[in-house]
Design brief:
Helix content is 57%, strand content 12%. With 155 residues, the protein is an alpha/beta fold. The protein has a domain of 90 residues. The protein has a 5-stranded parallel beta sheet. α8 links the parallel β4 and β5. α2 crosses α3, α2 packs parallel to α4 and α6 packs across α7. The longest helix has 14 residues. The N terminus is likely disordered.
């Protein structure tokens, strides 16, 4: 790994958050729909991504979402790596954040509080980081974001 690569990755991971109104958090379900042409939401996801690109809206993803996407596609190694590279290495398109210890603690509180929901821990970390960063818009096809009730679920 080159020094410049390491430096740019650290800058991206630790970058100041741009205006949350100009960002959209991307859930695992959206990444899957974008890549899997057999997914019921594939066309909607592709169309929405094109709209986002035209408007130059920054997408936000986390290391927990990366983990879910890679795991989902890992039986197709080439696709899993392609998706991982896209999520982790698309500066100016996707801001890649690591979940902090505080985010994890908040996620655990969320998980314990919603007894009637089947939120995954990754969902809870996504809720926590969106709250911390002030992001209200989420690109997702996962019903859990609607159930949580604090975000505008797009498209």
């Amino acid at each position: 790994m080159t020094e410049s690569y390491t430096r740019s990755r650290n800058l991206l991971a630790n970058a100041e958050m741009p205006d949350p109104q100009a960002c959209i958090f991307v859930d695992t379900s959206a990444f899957i729909a974008l890549r899997d042409s057999k997914d019921i939401n594939h066309r909607r996801a592709k169309d929405f991504l094109e709209e986002i690109k035209k408007k130059r809206i920054l997408l936000v993803a986390t290391n927990f979402v990366f983990d879910e996407v890679y795991t989902y596609f890992c039986r197709f190694h080439k696709v899993a790596v392609e998706m991982g590279e896209y999520i982790r290495n698309s500066p100016g398109v996707i801001a890649y954040y690591r979940i902090t210890a505080d985010d994890e603690n908040r996620a655990w509180e969320i998980a314990k509080s919603y007894r009637d929901k089947t939120f995954s821990f990754t969902d809870c970390t996504s809720f926590a980081i969106c709250e911390r960063l002030g992001i209200l818009d989420v690109f997702a096809f996962d019903e859990h974001f609607k159930q949580y009730g604090k975000f505008n679920v797009l498209p």
